[in-house]
């Protein structure tokens, strides 16, 4: 029996947990952020959409690394504006989100929509907003997560080109808000350009969200792959100076047949690991939001602002004193750390803080307000602890994303979105189509399929899942696609295939090898005649 899939379950309702987190933020944390102008120095205040939005995945990498193809692989569907090529083809930040109808929302309109978590992007100006869009489309994957496609990071030969906006700053804005960052590298073009190094700088502090993918690994032998993998790990170690080693996945992430290679099994295992990580994002979404909330609360911003206010003279030499305080900021951090017992990790980056302080009038800063600090302390010591049981209960009840390994995640969309004819539901208002439905479109190919079936030595007229799997993997299609084909073909759900079900499976495989999308559910004209009555009863 196939062990690749789990039955898709409902994701459950998390409104209660979301409302609790919102209430904590608006009641305890937001008044402190406003009082000490937190948004001028760090990130903008949270809005309802930041709590209500689905988990987001940021896909980034150098051009031609396979970003757009990777997204198509996840949703098993093309999306408006997507184009694949060896040259830089994606010049926009594209947010893929669920919608009942397919439409494109331009950047300027997107940033004024209170229901979308992108309102604060207007700080990057029109040059960026003209390169921002949201694509809404009906897709099962996008019902549970949103995906952000990014422009390809330029190589050394193109680094002099100006984008017209602060690309690393935009990446950091998204990195702070997304649940997962997928960074793709082309195993054949491993090059660390200036812009890539700047992009890495934008990701510092978010290493826990980062997953690195060495893509197109089926197109080289094991010796070459070992050398490229080693070079990538060495380069990443120079940029991310942390004791922990970043997780690097080796794969070939697209839904077409892979090239046979010595490390084919490794690619399959790496695929399962990465997809499992993405699949669990909805389950961990509330925990991530709580974690971000605590991060903001622990930042020693209020202590810094109040100390600078306290040290400023009342009348004379304000400007010289201001510059002196900015110069001594590292020493001030140490004093605050000792006086208030604040851990060193709760302070912002000193250099960036110094840069931002230059444009502010210290005399307008606010002194430490005991009532606000007591409220903050209550948030961290009592309120969060009281909400943890509710959070744990929600986490246990919340199911993961529909399994990629059973094909539900990969896609397959609703009947109205089938792209090509072989698997498309035939119209029922046409007399000729009614005649076609009386037959079975697979029947004409069945003698050829039966020969394969009987060569696999069926037992009592059926093939076990083990035998079918052994034959299926010779097609070199990803396990995720094969598992979906198995689910469509095992109509009676007994874990085995008879000759008609096997013929259907081979027909679907051949269609997929020709480049067609698979249906989400089996159209009636593909159901074997002997199974149609049982299928109708099952649907009833």
TrEMBL record:
<dbReference type="GO" id="GO:0010008">
    <property type="term" value="C:endosome membrane"/>
</dbReference>
<dbReference type="GO" id="GO:0006897">
    <property type="term" value="P:endocytosis"/>
</dbReference>
<dbReference type="GO" id="GO:0016197">
    <property type="term" value="P:endosomal transport"/>
</dbReference>
<dbReference type="Pfam" id="PF16880">
    <property type="entry name" value="EHD_N"/>
</dbReference>
<dbReference type="GO" id="GO:0005524">
    <property type="term" value="F:ATP binding"/>
</dbReference>
<keyword id="KW-0597">Phosphoprotein</keyword>
<feature type="domain" description="Dynamin-type G">
    <location>
        <begin position="51"/>
        <end position="282"/>
    </location>
</feature>
<dbReference type="InterPro" id="IPR002048">
    <property type="entry name" value="EF_hand_dom"/>
</dbReference>
<feature type="domain" description="EH">
    <location>
        <begin position="445"/>
        <end position="533"/>
    </location>
</feature>
<protein>
    <recommendedName>
        <fullName>EH-domain containing 2a</fullName>
    </recommendedName>
</protein>
<dbReference type="InterPro" id="IPR027417">
    <property type="entry name" value="P-loop_NTPase"/>
</dbReference>
<keyword id="KW-0547">Nucleotide-binding</keyword>
<keyword id="KW-0472">Membrane</keyword>
<keyword id="KW-0342">GTP-binding</keyword>
<dbReference type="GO" id="GO:0005886">
    <property type="term" value="C:plasma membrane"/>
</dbReference>
<dbReference type="Pfam" id="PF00350">
    <property type="entry name" value="Dynamin_N"/>
</dbReference>
<feature type="domain" description="EF-hand">
    <location>
        <begin position="477"/>
        <end position="512"/>
    </location>
</feature>
<dbReference type="InterPro" id="IPR045063">
    <property type="entry name" value="Dynamin_N"/>
</dbReference>
<dbReference type="InterPro" id="IPR031692">
    <property type="entry name" value="EHD_N"/>
</dbReference>
<keyword id="KW-0067">ATP-binding</keyword>
<dbReference type="GO" id="GO:0005525">
    <property type="term" value="F:GTP binding"/>
</dbReference>
<keyword id="KW-1003">Cell membrane</keyword>
<dbReference type="Pfam" id="PF18150">
    <property type="entry name" value="DUF5600"/>
</dbReference>
<dbReference type="InterPro" id="IPR000261">
    <property type="entry name" value="EH_dom"/>
</dbReference>
<dbReference type="InterPro" id="IPR040990">
    <property type="entry name" value="DUF5600"/>
</dbReference>
<dbReference type="InterPro" id="IPR030381">
    <property type="entry name" value="G_DYNAMIN_dom"/>
</dbReference>
<keyword id="KW-0479">Metal-binding</keyword>
<keyword id="KW-0106">Calcium</keyword>
<dbReference type="GO" id="GO:0005509">
    <property type="term" value="F:calcium ion binding"/>
</dbReference>
<dbReference type="InterPro" id="IPR018247">
    <property type="entry name" value="EF_Hand_1_Ca_BS"/>
</dbReference>
<dbReference type="InterPro" id="IPR011992">
    <property type="entry name" value="EF-hand-dom_pair"/>
</dbReference>
<dbReference type="Pfam" id="PF12763">
    <property type="entry name" value="EH"/>
</dbReference>
<keyword id="KW-0967">Endosome</keyword>
